[in-house]
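Kindly inspect this today.
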Amino acid sequence: MSMNPDDRPVETLRGIAEPLLAVAGAFLLTSLLALPFVPVRLRVEVELRPAPGSEISVPHAQLRDEIERLGLADGAEVLLLGGASRLVLRGVSDVAEIEGPVGDLLERSGYQRRDFVSSPELDMEGLLRTQSHTLPLLLSIQAVIFLGSGLLLARGRIRKMPPDTAAPPLHAVLFGLAAGVGAVLLSVGISALLSLVGLPVEEQEWLNELYAEPGVLLRIAPWVVLVGPVAEEVFFRGYFFRFTSQRAGLPVGLLLSSAMFAVIHWNASGFLVYLGIGCVFAWVYHRTGRIVAPIVAHATLNAIVLTVSALLVEGSEFAIYIPH
C-alpha cells in the first residue's frame, strides 16, 4: 500500500511518538501493579545545632559516615536548608532503636540532642535488595505488561515480511546464537573502551548487593534467561523497532528502539553498552525476519552473563551486565 507524500511527516512523527508513549505507559502500569509489594520504611530527620558552649568536632561529611557505620539506617545525608542543617536517615525500621546511639554520637560530636521526626517512605531499593524473593514477581509483572502490550500494539498495524523472504527457522536460531555471543563481546569491548577514557561502567549498588546474596542468581535465572528475553524482544523488536522503522526509516527505528531498551535498564554509565546490545538484537531481527532470532540472542547473552556473574571474581577490571 502506497503512502501519500503529504502523510509521511505525520506517519514519521507517529512512528516515533507512539512507541515512546507505550514505553512510558508500560512502566507506569508496572509501577502501579508493583506498588502493593513495596515496603514502607521510615525517613528520619533531626536538626543539627551546635551544643551551647561547645565546638563542632565532627564535620557534616564525617558525621554522615559515622552514622552509616552504626548500621541503623540504609543511608544518611545532611541537608542544608536556608542556613539550617538537617541530618536525614533513610530506610530506618525503628526510630526508638536509633535515638540512643545517634543521639550519643551527636552529643560527642558537639551537637545538641534534638527530637527525631519520622515520616513513612516507599523503599523500592530496599524491596529489591533485602526482599529478593519478590524480584521474580516484579519481573513477571513487567514481562506480562511488555509481552501483552507488544502483541496488542503490533497486531494488524505492522507489515509482515513475506514468508519466502524470511530466514528458515533453524537459520534464525543459529543467527540468534551467534548474535548473542557477539553482543557479549561487544559489551565487553564497549566497557573496556569507556574504562580507558575514564568513564567506567558501574552497576547499581543495590544490584551488586542483590547478586552477592547466596542463591539469588539461581532464583531469578528462569526470568533472566527465558521470560525476560521473550517479553522484551516482542515489545522492543517485534513492536517498537518494526513500527518505528516502517514509519520513520530503518536507522531511526534501530537507534530509537535500542536507546529506549538502554534507558529501561536505569544505568546511565552503561547506556552505551545497552545501546550496542539493542542494536545487535534489532539487526539480527531485521536480517532474519523472525522474532525467534533476537529472543535466542537475548537469552544467549543473559545465560552467558548470568554464568559469568556467578563465577566472577571480585576486582575484575571490566564488567558486563545482565539486561534483565
